Amino acid sequence: MQQFLPAEGTILKLSDHISVGFDAVRLCEAIAKIGYEPYTAIMDLVDNSVTAGAKEIKVTLGLHEGKTLKSKNGVAYYQIVDNGKGMNEDEIVNAFKIGSERNYSENSLSKYGMGLKSAGLSLGTSISIFSKKNKALSYKYTFDLEVIKKINQISVVRTQLTDEETEQANILLSGKSGTVVTISGCENINQSSPNLTITKLRERLGVVYSNFLSRPKPPLSILFRVVKNNEDTDFEEATPKDLLFLEEAKKHTDWNPKTYDFATPYLVLDELWDAFKDKNDEPLSKIRIQAVAFPQAVLADTKSPLSPESKEKIRAYRISRENSGFFIYRNGRLIRWGDSLGRPNGKPLIGKDDINLRFRFEILTEHDDILHVDVSKQRLEIDDEILGSLENVVSQAIRTAKQIRQACQEKLKVRHTEGESFNQTVIDVTEDDPQELSKGSPNKTTLERQNKLNQEAQKKLQEIKSKRESNDTSDSESVATDSSLFKKIRYEENFPPRQLWKTFFDSLHGAFIIVNKSHPFFEEFISRFENGTPERLTIEALMFSAGVAENNVFNYEHDIDTTKLENAFRRFHRNIDSFLVDWAYENLGEE
Predict the structure, then answer these.
(1) Gap between the Cα atoms of 487 and 485, Å rounded
(2) Per-residue pLDDT for 533 more than 60?
(3) CATH number of the domain at 24-237, out of 3.30.1490.20, 3.30.565.10, 1.10.260.40, 3.30.450.40?
(4) Cα(335)–Cα(377) distance, integer angstroms
Protein backbone atom coordinates (compact mmCIF):
# COMPACT_ATOMS: atom_id res chain seq x y z
CA MET A 1 0.00 0.00 0.00
CA GLN A 2 1.36 3.44 -0.96
CA GLN A 3 2.01 5.65 2.08
CA PHE A 4 1.88 9.41 1.78
CA LEU A 5 4.45 10.27 4.44
CA PRO A 6 7.35 12.73 4.38
CA ALA A 7 10.50 11.13 2.99
CA GLU A 8 13.18 10.34 5.53
CA GLY A 9 15.33 13.40 6.17
CA THR A 10 12.72 15.83 4.82
CA ILE A 11 12.72 19.12 6.69
CA LEU A 12 9.19 20.34 7.33
CA LYS A 13 8.59 24.06 7.39
CA LEU A 14 6.33 25.69 9.94
CA SER A 15 3.95 26.44 7.08
CA ASP A 16 3.62 22.71 6.44
CA HIS A 17 1.98 22.21 9.85
CA ILE A 18 -1.77 22.81 9.85
CA SER A 19 -3.44 22.91 13.25
CA VAL A 20 -6.78 21.09 13.10
CA GLY A 21 -7.88 22.34 16.51
CA PHE A 22 -10.77 20.86 18.45
CA ASP A 23 -14.23 21.72 19.66
CA ALA A 24 -13.78 22.50 23.36
CA VAL A 25 -17.35 21.67 24.36
CA ARG A 26 -17.51 18.35 22.51
CA LEU A 27 -14.13 17.35 23.93
CA CYS A 28 -15.34 18.04 27.47
CA GLU A 29 -18.56 16.15 26.84
CA ALA A 30 -16.56 13.22 25.46
CA ILE A 31 -14.20 12.87 28.42
CA ALA A 32 -17.19 13.02 30.75
CA LYS A 33 -18.59 9.89 29.06
CA ILE A 34 -15.59 7.65 29.67
CA GLY A 35 -17.76 5.31 31.73
CA TYR A 36 -18.09 6.39 35.34
CA GLU A 37 -20.73 5.64 37.89
CA PRO A 38 -20.97 8.41 40.53
CA TYR A 39 -19.17 6.31 43.13
CA THR A 40 -16.35 5.36 40.74
CA ALA A 41 -15.93 9.00 39.72
CA ILE A 42 -15.68 10.01 43.39
CA MET A 43 -13.01 7.37 43.95
CA ASP A 44 -11.06 8.64 40.94
CA LEU A 45 -11.00 12.05 42.63
CA VAL A 46 -9.98 10.40 45.91
CA ASP A 47 -7.03 8.90 43.98
CA ASN A 48 -5.71 12.43 43.42
CA SER A 49 -5.81 13.06 47.16
CA VAL A 50 -3.99 9.81 47.89
CA THR A 51 -1.36 10.71 45.28
CA ALA A 52 -0.98 14.11 47.00
CA GLY A 53 0.03 12.33 50.22
CA ALA A 54 -3.15 13.09 52.15
CA LYS A 55 -3.59 11.49 55.54
CA GLU A 56 -7.30 12.38 55.72
CA ILE A 57 -9.83 12.62 52.89
CA LYS A 58 -13.42 13.74 53.43
CA VAL A 59 -16.15 13.14 50.86
CA THR A 60 -19.47 14.98 51.09
CA LEU A 61 -22.64 14.61 49.02
CA GLY A 62 -24.89 17.65 49.43
CA LEU A 63 -28.57 17.09 48.64
CA HIS A 64 -30.80 19.52 46.76
CA GLU A 65 -33.47 21.11 48.92
CA GLY A 66 -36.59 18.97 48.93
CA LYS A 67 -34.73 15.88 47.70
CA THR A 68 -34.23 12.66 49.62
CA LEU A 69 -31.68 9.88 49.43
CA LYS A 70 -34.05 7.99 47.13
CA SER A 71 -34.47 10.90 44.68
CA LYS A 72 -32.86 10.43 41.30
CA ASN A 73 -30.55 13.36 40.48
CA GLY A 74 -30.86 14.43 44.10
CA VAL A 75 -27.27 15.67 44.59
CA ALA A 76 -26.61 19.44 44.50
CA TYR A 77 -22.83 19.16 44.93
CA TYR A 78 -19.98 16.77 45.66
CA GLN A 79 -16.99 17.90 47.72
CA ILE A 80 -13.65 16.22 48.38
CA VAL A 81 -11.41 17.74 51.05
CA ASP A 82 -7.89 16.47 51.80
CA ASN A 83 -4.90 17.50 53.88
CA GLY A 84 -2.33 16.55 51.23
CA LYS A 85 0.61 18.65 50.08
CA GLY A 86 -1.62 21.25 48.44
CA MET A 87 -1.12 23.12 45.16
CA ASN A 88 0.06 26.53 44.07
CA GLU A 89 -1.46 28.43 41.15
CA ASP A 90 0.63 26.76 38.46
CA GLU A 91 -0.14 23.30 39.85
CA ILE A 92 -3.88 23.98 39.96
CA VAL A 93 -3.89 25.26 36.37
CA ASN A 94 -1.88 22.20 35.30
CA ALA A 95 -4.39 19.92 37.05
CA PHE A 96 -7.13 21.38 34.84
CA LYS A 97 -5.23 20.72 31.61
CA ILE A 98 -6.66 17.99 29.40
CA GLY A 99 -3.81 15.55 29.88
CA SER A 100 -1.91 17.33 32.63
CA GLU A 101 1.88 17.27 32.64
CA ARG A 102 3.61 14.08 33.77
CA ASN A 103 4.92 14.70 37.24
CA TYR A 104 3.70 11.57 39.00
CA SER A 105 5.79 9.54 41.39
CA GLU A 106 6.67 5.95 40.53
CA ASN A 107 3.63 3.64 40.62
CA SER A 108 1.27 6.56 41.25
CA LEU A 109 -2.49 6.03 41.23
CA SER A 110 -2.70 8.67 38.47
CA LYS A 111 -1.74 8.04 34.87
CA TYR A 112 -3.12 10.03 31.94
CA GLY A 113 -3.85 13.39 33.58
CA MET A 114 -7.57 13.05 32.80
CA GLY A 115 -9.12 11.98 36.09
CA LEU A 116 -10.04 15.35 37.59
CA LYS A 117 -11.77 16.53 34.40
CA SER A 118 -13.36 13.27 33.27
CA ALA A 119 -14.55 12.19 36.72
CA GLY A 120 -15.61 15.70 37.71
CA LEU A 121 -17.60 16.37 34.54
CA SER A 122 -19.34 13.01 34.87
CA LEU A 123 -20.72 14.31 38.19
CA GLY A 124 -21.55 17.93 37.32
CA THR A 125 -20.87 20.79 34.93
CA SER A 126 -18.61 22.86 37.19
CA ILE A 127 -15.40 21.89 39.01
CA SER A 128 -13.92 24.33 41.53
CA ILE A 129 -10.61 24.04 43.35
CA PHE A 130 -8.92 26.08 46.03
CA SER A 131 -5.87 24.89 47.90
CA LYS A 132 -3.49 25.70 50.71
CA LYS A 133 0.24 25.26 50.39
CA ASN A 134 2.85 26.40 52.89
CA LYS A 135 -0.03 27.90 54.93
CA ALA A 136 -1.07 30.19 52.03
CA LEU A 137 -4.57 29.95 50.55
CA SER A 138 -4.92 30.11 46.80
CA TYR A 139 -7.52 31.77 44.63
CA LYS A 140 -10.53 29.69 43.62
CA TYR A 141 -10.23 28.19 40.12
CA THR A 142 -13.36 27.01 38.33
CA PHE A 143 -13.60 24.79 35.27
CA ASP A 144 -17.16 25.55 34.13
CA LEU A 145 -18.76 23.86 31.14
CA GLU A 146 -21.25 26.70 30.68
CA VAL A 147 -18.40 29.22 30.42
CA ILE A 148 -16.53 26.95 28.01
CA LYS A 149 -19.65 26.75 25.84
CA LYS A 150 -19.83 30.55 25.62
CA ILE A 151 -16.22 31.05 24.51
CA ASN A 152 -15.59 27.59 22.97
CA GLN A 153 -12.24 27.47 24.70
CA ILE A 154 -10.99 25.28 27.49
CA SER A 155 -10.16 27.65 30.31
CA VAL A 156 -10.54 28.18 34.02
CA VAL A 157 -11.95 31.18 35.81
CA ARG A 158 -9.85 32.54 38.68
CA THR A 159 -11.63 34.44 41.46
CA GLN A 160 -10.65 35.76 44.86
CA LEU A 161 -12.19 33.88 47.76
CA THR A 162 -14.93 35.89 49.43
CA ASP A 163 -14.74 36.55 53.15
CA GLU A 164 -17.31 33.82 53.73
CA GLU A 165 -15.40 31.38 51.48
CA THR A 166 -12.12 32.26 53.23
CA GLU A 167 -13.67 31.54 56.60
CA GLN A 168 -15.02 28.23 55.30
CA ALA A 169 -11.66 27.41 53.69
CA ASN A 170 -9.82 27.89 56.97
CA ILE A 171 -12.26 25.51 58.63
CA LEU A 172 -11.95 22.87 55.91
CA LEU A 173 -8.16 23.27 55.60
CA SER A 174 -7.13 23.73 59.21
CA GLY A 175 -3.62 22.31 58.69
CA LYS A 176 -0.61 23.63 56.81
CA SER A 177 -1.79 22.33 53.45
CA GLY A 178 -4.62 20.65 51.60
CA THR A 179 -7.08 20.95 48.74
CA VAL A 180 -10.85 21.32 48.33
CA VAL A 181 -12.53 20.11 45.14
CA THR A 182 -16.21 20.95 44.69
CA ILE A 183 -18.37 19.73 41.81
CA SER A 184 -21.66 21.53 41.20
CA GLY A 185 -24.18 21.72 38.38
CA CYS A 186 -25.02 18.11 39.22
CA GLU A 187 -28.68 18.61 38.30
CA ASN A 188 -27.56 18.80 34.66
CA ILE A 189 -26.27 15.21 34.76
CA ASN A 190 -28.56 12.17 34.73
CA GLN A 191 -27.49 10.18 37.80
CA SER A 192 -28.67 7.45 40.09
CA SER A 193 -30.00 8.20 43.56
CA PRO A 194 -27.60 9.48 46.24
CA ASN A 195 -28.64 6.48 48.32
CA LEU A 196 -27.13 4.12 45.73
CA THR A 197 -23.94 6.19 45.58
CA ILE A 198 -23.44 6.36 49.34
CA THR A 199 -24.25 2.64 49.66
CA LYS A 200 -21.60 1.79 47.06
CA LEU A 201 -19.07 4.02 48.83
CA ARG A 202 -19.89 2.33 52.14
CA GLU A 203 -19.42 -1.11 50.58
CA ARG A 204 -16.38 -0.37 48.45
CA LEU A 205 -14.12 2.35 49.87
CA GLY A 206 -12.70 0.02 52.50
CA VAL A 207 -11.99 -2.66 49.90
CA VAL A 208 -10.65 -0.41 47.12
CA TYR A 209 -8.22 1.43 49.42
CA SER A 210 -7.60 -1.40 51.87
CA ASN A 211 -3.82 -1.30 51.39
CA PHE A 212 -3.68 2.42 52.14
CA LEU A 213 -6.17 2.43 55.02
CA SER A 214 -4.34 -0.39 56.81
CA ARG A 215 -0.79 0.91 56.35
CA PRO A 216 0.91 2.16 59.55
CA LYS A 217 2.92 4.95 57.89
CA PRO A 218 1.73 7.30 56.61
CA PRO A 219 -1.75 6.47 57.91
CA LEU A 220 -4.78 7.24 55.76
CA SER A 221 -8.37 7.94 56.77
CA ILE A 222 -11.26 8.27 54.28
CA LEU A 223 -14.55 9.65 55.57
CA PHE A 224 -17.86 10.19 53.79
CA ARG A 225 -21.32 11.59 54.44
CA VAL A 226 -24.53 12.98 52.98
CA VAL A 227 -25.72 16.43 54.09
CA LYS A 228 -29.09 18.08 53.66
CA ASN A 229 -29.61 21.85 53.70
CA ASN A 230 -25.88 22.26 54.45
CA GLU A 231 -26.37 20.85 57.95
CA ASP A 232 -23.21 19.71 59.73
CA THR A 233 -23.61 15.95 59.64
CA ASP A 234 -21.22 13.41 61.11
CA PHE A 235 -18.91 11.50 58.78
CA GLU A 236 -18.69 7.72 58.48
CA GLU A 237 -15.20 6.29 58.29
CA ALA A 238 -14.18 3.66 55.76
CA THR A 239 -12.54 0.69 57.44
CA PRO A 240 -10.01 -1.46 55.56
CA LYS A 241 -11.54 -4.63 54.23
CA ASP A 242 -9.73 -7.50 52.55
CA LEU A 243 -12.51 -9.17 50.59
CA LEU A 244 -10.32 -12.23 50.09
CA PHE A 245 -9.81 -12.68 53.86
CA LEU A 246 -6.24 -13.61 53.08
CA GLU A 247 -4.95 -13.61 56.65
CA GLU A 248 -7.50 -16.23 57.61
CA ALA A 249 -7.21 -18.15 54.34
CA LYS A 250 -3.41 -18.43 54.63
CA LYS A 251 -3.93 -20.64 57.69
CA HIS A 252 -5.77 -23.14 55.48
CA THR A 253 -3.94 -24.17 52.33
CA ASP A 254 -4.61 -27.88 51.84
CA TRP A 255 -8.32 -28.38 51.35
CA ASN A 256 -9.53 -31.81 52.35
CA PRO A 257 -13.21 -32.85 52.18
CA LYS A 258 -12.76 -35.10 55.22
CA THR A 259 -11.67 -32.27 57.51
CA TYR A 260 -13.63 -29.40 55.96
CA ASP A 261 -15.77 -27.42 58.44
CA PHE A 262 -17.92 -25.73 55.72
CA ALA A 263 -17.23 -22.26 57.15
CA THR A 264 -13.53 -21.60 56.47
CA PRO A 265 -11.97 -19.85 53.45
CA TYR A 266 -9.07 -21.71 51.84
CA LEU A 267 -6.07 -20.28 50.04
CA VAL A 268 -6.07 -22.34 46.83
CA LEU A 269 -3.48 -20.37 44.83
CA ASP A 270 -0.49 -18.15 45.64
CA GLU A 271 1.85 -17.75 42.70
CA LEU A 272 4.08 -15.23 40.94
CA TRP A 273 2.99 -15.17 37.30
CA ASP A 274 5.82 -14.51 34.87
CA ALA A 275 4.24 -13.94 31.46
CA PHE A 276 5.06 -10.38 30.44
CA LYS A 277 7.64 -8.60 28.33
CA ASP A 278 7.65 -5.00 27.17
CA LYS A 279 7.85 -3.81 23.54
CA ASN A 280 11.64 -4.20 23.67
CA ASP A 281 11.26 -7.82 24.75
CA GLU A 282 12.52 -6.99 28.23
CA PRO A 283 10.87 -8.90 31.09
CA LEU A 284 8.38 -7.03 33.27
CA SER A 285 7.80 -7.60 36.98
CA LYS A 286 6.00 -10.78 37.91
CA ILE A 287 2.36 -10.49 38.92
CA ARG A 288 1.29 -12.07 42.16
CA ILE A 289 -1.96 -14.02 41.90
CA GLN A 290 -3.74 -15.37 44.97
CA ALA A 291 -7.06 -17.19 45.10
CA VAL A 292 -9.39 -17.96 47.98
CA ALA A 293 -12.30 -20.41 47.84
CA PHE A 294 -15.25 -19.85 50.18
CA PRO A 295 -18.13 -22.05 51.33
CA GLN A 296 -21.50 -21.60 49.67
CA ALA A 297 -23.57 -18.65 50.90
CA VAL A 298 -26.64 -20.87 51.38
CA LEU A 299 -24.91 -22.49 54.36
CA ALA A 300 -25.67 -19.30 56.28
CA ASP A 301 -29.43 -19.71 55.76
CA THR A 302 -31.82 -20.62 58.56
CA LYS A 303 -32.15 -24.20 57.33
CA SER A 304 -28.42 -24.82 57.31
CA PRO A 305 -27.23 -27.47 59.78
CA LEU A 306 -24.24 -25.30 60.81
CA SER A 307 -23.94 -23.54 64.14
CA PRO A 308 -25.05 -19.89 64.55
CA GLU A 309 -21.38 -18.90 64.88
CA SER A 310 -20.47 -20.57 61.58
CA LYS A 311 -23.44 -18.99 59.82
CA GLU A 312 -22.42 -15.55 61.04
CA LYS A 313 -18.90 -16.19 59.82
CA ILE A 314 -20.14 -17.14 56.35
CA ARG A 315 -22.37 -14.07 56.12
CA ALA A 316 -19.34 -11.87 56.80
CA TYR A 317 -17.68 -13.17 53.62
CA ARG A 318 -20.39 -11.48 51.48
CA ILE A 319 -20.44 -14.40 49.06
CA SER A 320 -22.31 -13.40 45.90
CA ARG A 321 -21.89 -13.35 42.14
CA GLU A 322 -20.92 -9.66 42.30
CA ASN A 323 -18.17 -10.48 44.79
CA SER A 324 -16.65 -13.37 42.84
CA GLY A 325 -13.93 -13.38 40.20
CA PHE A 326 -10.75 -11.34 39.78
CA PHE A 327 -10.07 -8.39 42.06
CA ILE A 328 -7.42 -6.52 40.12
CA TYR A 329 -5.19 -4.05 41.97
CA ARG A 330 -3.02 -1.44 40.29
CA ASN A 331 -0.28 0.00 42.49
CA GLY A 332 -2.18 -1.23 45.53
CA ARG A 333 -5.51 0.33 44.53
CA LEU A 334 -8.41 -1.90 43.40
CA ILE A 335 -9.39 -1.04 39.80
CA ARG A 336 -11.54 -4.06 38.84
CA TRP A 337 -14.10 -5.56 41.17
CA GLY A 338 -15.03 -9.18 40.44
CA ASP A 339 -13.90 -9.39 36.81
CA SER A 340 -14.65 -12.70 35.05
CA LEU A 341 -11.81 -12.12 32.54
CA GLY A 342 -12.00 -13.73 29.14
CA ARG A 343 -12.14 -13.16 25.45
CA PRO A 344 -14.86 -10.74 24.27
CA ASN A 345 -16.77 -13.46 22.41
CA GLY A 346 -15.43 -16.47 24.25
CA LYS A 347 -15.83 -18.32 27.51
CA PRO A 348 -14.78 -16.31 30.58
CA LEU A 349 -12.23 -17.75 32.99
CA ILE A 350 -14.70 -17.37 35.84
CA GLY A 351 -18.07 -18.94 35.08
CA LYS A 352 -21.45 -18.15 36.61
CA ASP A 353 -21.14 -21.13 38.94
CA ASP A 354 -17.77 -20.03 40.38
CA ILE A 355 -19.54 -17.83 42.89
CA ASN A 356 -17.36 -18.94 45.82
CA LEU A 357 -13.99 -18.07 44.25
CA ARG A 358 -12.04 -14.79 44.42
CA PHE A 359 -8.66 -13.93 42.92
CA ARG A 360 -6.32 -11.11 43.91
CA PHE A 361 -4.36 -9.91 40.89
CA GLU A 362 -1.72 -7.21 41.48
CA ILE A 363 -0.26 -5.12 38.65
CA LEU A 364 2.05 -2.09 38.49
CA THR A 365 2.25 0.93 36.18
CA GLU A 366 4.70 -0.98 33.97
CA HIS A 367 1.93 -3.47 33.11
CA ASP A 368 -0.50 -0.79 31.89
CA ASP A 369 0.36 -1.00 28.20
CA ILE A 370 0.49 -4.75 27.84
CA LEU A 371 -2.81 -5.12 29.73
CA HIS A 372 -4.40 -2.16 27.93
CA VAL A 373 -5.44 -0.28 31.06
CA ASP A 374 -7.87 2.43 29.91
CA VAL A 375 -8.05 6.15 30.68
CA SER A 376 -10.42 5.68 33.63
CA LYS A 377 -8.12 2.95 35.05
CA GLN A 378 -11.27 0.88 35.56
CA ARG A 379 -10.92 -1.55 32.68
CA LEU A 380 -8.23 -3.65 31.07
CA GLU A 381 -7.93 -6.31 28.39
CA ILE A 382 -5.76 -9.41 28.26
CA ASP A 383 -4.56 -10.66 24.88
CA ASP A 384 -5.38 -14.24 23.90
CA GLU A 385 -1.84 -15.56 24.32
CA ILE A 386 -1.51 -14.13 27.81
CA LEU A 387 -5.04 -15.26 28.66
CA GLY A 388 -4.11 -18.83 27.75
CA SER A 389 -1.17 -18.68 30.13
CA LEU A 390 -3.38 -17.27 32.89
CA GLU A 391 -5.91 -20.04 32.34
CA ASN A 392 -3.24 -22.63 33.09
CA VAL A 393 -2.24 -20.79 36.26
CA VAL A 394 -5.77 -20.56 37.71
CA SER A 395 -7.27 -23.87 36.52
CA GLN A 396 -6.48 -25.87 39.66
CA ALA A 397 -7.95 -23.16 41.90
CA ILE A 398 -11.16 -23.23 39.87
CA ARG A 399 -11.36 -27.02 40.22
CA THR A 400 -10.84 -26.88 43.99
CA ALA A 401 -13.54 -24.23 44.38
CA LYS A 402 -15.92 -26.52 42.49
CA GLN A 403 -15.08 -29.43 44.81
CA ILE A 404 -15.86 -27.18 47.79
CA ARG A 405 -19.24 -26.26 46.29
CA GLN A 406 -20.04 -29.93 45.77
CA ALA A 407 -19.12 -30.70 49.38
CA CYS A 408 -21.40 -27.89 50.55
CA GLN A 409 -24.24 -29.23 48.42
CA GLU A 410 -23.82 -32.67 49.98
CA LYS A 411 -23.89 -31.09 53.42
CA LEU A 412 -27.15 -29.35 52.60
CA LYS A 413 -28.80 -32.19 50.75
CA VAL A 414 -30.51 -33.75 53.76
CA ARG A 415 -31.94 -30.43 54.86
CA HIS A 416 -32.79 -28.82 51.55
CA THR A 417 -36.47 -28.98 50.56
CA GLU A 418 -37.21 -30.26 47.09
CA GLY A 419 -38.50 -27.40 44.97
CA GLU A 420 -37.12 -24.74 47.31
CA SER A 421 -34.67 -23.40 44.73
CA PHE A 422 -37.42 -23.14 42.12
CA ASN A 423 -39.68 -21.33 44.56
CA GLN A 424 -36.96 -18.69 44.91
CA THR A 425 -36.72 -18.22 41.14
CA VAL A 426 -40.39 -17.31 40.62
CA ILE A 427 -40.82 -14.74 43.38
CA ASP A 428 -40.88 -11.86 40.89
CA VAL A 429 -42.26 -13.71 37.86
CA THR A 430 -45.84 -12.78 36.96
CA GLU A 431 -48.49 -15.36 36.10
CA ASP A 432 -50.80 -13.13 34.07
CA ASP A 433 -52.65 -14.30 31.01
CA PRO A 434 -51.16 -12.05 28.27
CA GLN A 435 -54.59 -11.77 26.60
CA GLU A 436 -56.11 -10.34 29.79
CA LEU A 437 -53.52 -7.71 30.71
CA SER A 438 -55.43 -4.77 29.21
CA LYS A 439 -58.91 -5.80 30.33
CA GLY A 440 -58.87 -4.51 33.93
CA SER A 441 -60.39 -6.46 36.82
CA PRO A 442 -61.66 -10.03 36.22
CA ASN A 443 -65.38 -10.39 35.57
CA LYS A 444 -67.86 -12.30 37.73
CA THR A 445 -67.44 -15.62 35.91
CA THR A 446 -63.68 -15.58 36.36
CA LEU A 447 -64.01 -14.70 40.05
CA GLU A 448 -66.43 -17.58 40.57
CA ARG A 449 -64.07 -20.03 38.88
CA GLN A 450 -61.09 -18.73 40.89
CA ASN A 451 -63.09 -19.12 44.10
CA LYS A 452 -63.89 -22.72 43.23
CA LEU A 453 -60.23 -23.51 42.52
CA ASN A 454 -59.14 -21.75 45.71
CA GLN A 455 -61.48 -23.86 47.83
CA GLU A 456 -60.01 -27.03 46.34
CA ALA A 457 -56.49 -25.74 46.94
CA GLN A 458 -57.11 -24.84 50.60
CA LYS A 459 -58.64 -28.25 51.22
CA LYS A 460 -55.56 -29.97 49.74
CA LEU A 461 -53.13 -27.76 51.69
CA GLN A 462 -54.95 -28.59 54.92
CA GLU A 463 -54.75 -32.31 54.11
CA ILE A 464 -50.99 -32.02 53.58
CA LYS A 465 -50.57 -30.13 56.84
CA SER A 466 -52.62 -32.67 58.80
CA LYS A 467 -50.69 -35.55 57.26
CA ARG A 468 -47.36 -34.04 58.27
CA GLU A 469 -48.53 -33.29 61.80
CA SER A 470 -49.86 -36.82 62.27
CA ASN A 471 -46.66 -38.37 60.92
CA ASP A 472 -44.56 -36.02 63.07
CA THR A 473 -41.69 -36.44 60.63
CA SER A 474 -38.41 -34.60 60.73
CA ASP A 475 -37.27 -35.39 57.22
CA SER A 476 -36.04 -32.80 54.78
CA GLU A 477 -39.49 -32.08 53.38
CA SER A 478 -41.15 -31.39 56.73
CA VAL A 479 -38.26 -29.31 58.01
CA ALA A 480 -38.85 -26.71 55.33
CA THR A 481 -42.65 -26.49 55.43
CA ASP A 482 -42.57 -23.73 58.06
CA SER A 483 -40.95 -21.33 55.59
CA SER A 484 -42.79 -18.02 55.10
CA LEU A 485 -42.26 -18.34 51.35
CA PHE A 486 -45.32 -19.74 49.62
CA LYS A 487 -44.31 -22.91 47.81
CA LYS A 488 -45.17 -22.79 44.14
CA ILE A 489 -43.99 -26.35 43.61
CA ARG A 490 -44.39 -29.15 46.18
CA TYR A 491 -43.48 -32.82 46.23
CA GLU A 492 -45.68 -35.57 47.68
CA GLU A 493 -45.68 -39.37 47.67
CA ASN A 494 -48.51 -41.09 45.76
CA PHE A 495 -50.25 -37.87 44.77
CA PRO A 496 -51.80 -37.27 42.38
CA PRO A 497 -52.49 -40.86 41.29
CA ARG A 498 -51.61 -41.62 37.67
CA GLN A 499 -50.34 -38.07 37.15
CA LEU A 500 -46.87 -36.53 37.27
CA TRP A 501 -48.24 -33.28 38.70
CA LYS A 502 -51.55 -31.64 39.61
CA THR A 503 -52.32 -27.94 39.32
CA PHE A 504 -53.93 -25.83 42.05
CA PHE A 505 -54.86 -22.15 42.44
CA ASP A 506 -54.53 -20.10 45.62
CA SER A 507 -56.51 -16.82 45.55
CA LEU A 508 -53.65 -14.93 47.22
CA HIS A 509 -50.51 -16.56 45.86
CA GLY A 510 -51.70 -17.79 42.46
CA ALA A 511 -50.77 -21.11 40.85
CA PHE A 512 -48.93 -23.96 42.53
CA ILE A 513 -48.41 -27.58 41.58
CA ILE A 514 -47.90 -30.81 43.48
CA VAL A 515 -45.49 -33.30 41.90
CA ASN A 516 -46.00 -37.03 42.41
CA LYS A 517 -42.71 -38.49 43.73
CA SER A 518 -44.09 -42.02 43.12
CA HIS A 519 -44.51 -41.46 39.40
CA PRO A 520 -42.07 -43.56 37.31
CA PHE A 521 -40.77 -40.50 35.47
CA PHE A 522 -39.87 -38.85 38.77
CA GLU A 523 -38.36 -41.98 40.27
CA GLU A 524 -36.22 -42.84 37.26
CA PHE A 525 -35.27 -39.42 35.88
CA ILE A 526 -36.21 -36.27 37.80
CA SER A 527 -34.81 -37.67 41.05
CA ARG A 528 -31.37 -37.93 39.45
CA PHE A 529 -31.03 -34.15 39.52
CA GLU A 530 -30.44 -32.46 42.83
CA ASN A 531 -32.56 -29.56 43.99
CA GLY A 532 -31.38 -26.33 42.39
CA THR A 533 -29.45 -27.87 39.49
CA PRO A 534 -30.15 -26.43 36.03
CA GLU A 535 -31.70 -29.73 34.93
CA ARG A 536 -34.10 -29.92 37.88
CA LEU A 537 -35.02 -26.22 37.58
CA THR A 538 -35.73 -26.64 33.87
CA ILE A 539 -38.09 -29.59 34.42
CA GLU A 540 -39.82 -27.75 37.28
CA ALA A 541 -40.23 -24.62 35.14
CA LEU A 542 -41.86 -26.63 32.34
CA MET A 543 -44.31 -28.37 34.70
CA PHE A 544 -45.12 -25.13 36.52
CA SER A 545 -45.62 -23.14 33.30
CA ALA A 546 -48.11 -25.78 32.16
CA GLY A 547 -49.86 -25.37 35.50
CA VAL A 548 -50.05 -21.59 35.09
CA ALA A 549 -51.45 -22.00 31.59
CA GLU A 550 -53.98 -24.55 32.83
CA ASN A 551 -55.23 -22.16 35.51
CA ASN A 552 -55.45 -19.21 33.13
CA VAL A 553 -57.37 -21.19 30.51
CA PHE A 554 -59.77 -22.47 33.14
CA ASN A 555 -60.33 -19.02 34.63
CA TYR A 556 -60.68 -16.98 31.44
CA GLU A 557 -62.04 -19.31 28.73
CA HIS A 558 -65.69 -18.47 29.41
CA ASP A 559 -67.07 -19.88 26.16
CA ILE A 560 -66.38 -23.40 27.39
CA ASP A 561 -68.32 -24.94 30.27
CA THR A 562 -66.21 -25.73 33.36
CA THR A 563 -67.16 -29.41 33.21
CA LYS A 564 -65.89 -29.66 29.65
CA LEU A 565 -62.68 -27.85 30.61
CA GLU A 566 -62.13 -30.22 33.53
CA ASN A 567 -62.64 -33.23 31.26
CA ALA A 568 -60.23 -31.75 28.70
CA PHE A 569 -57.47 -31.24 31.28
CA ARG A 570 -58.01 -34.73 32.74
CA ARG A 571 -57.52 -36.12 29.25
CA PHE A 572 -54.49 -33.86 28.80
CA HIS A 573 -52.85 -35.27 31.95
CA ARG A 574 -53.75 -38.87 31.09
CA ASN A 575 -51.97 -38.43 27.76
CA ILE A 576 -48.89 -36.99 29.46
CA ASP A 577 -48.94 -39.76 32.05
CA SER A 578 -49.29 -42.51 29.44
CA PHE A 579 -46.40 -41.23 27.35
CA LEU A 580 -44.04 -40.55 30.28
CA VAL A 581 -44.73 -43.92 31.93
CA ASP A 582 -44.07 -45.79 28.68
CA TRP A 583 -41.01 -43.66 27.95
CA ALA A 584 -39.62 -44.17 31.47
CA TYR A 585 -39.98 -47.96 31.33
CA GLU A 586 -38.49 -48.15 27.83
CA ASN A 587 -35.47 -46.15 28.98
CA LEU A 588 -35.13 -47.66 32.44
CA GLY A 589 -31.54 -47.74 33.56
CA GLU A 590 -30.32 -45.46 30.79
CA GLU A 591 -27.79 -42.82 31.81
Answers:
(1) 6
(2) yes
(3) 3.30.565.10
(4) 6
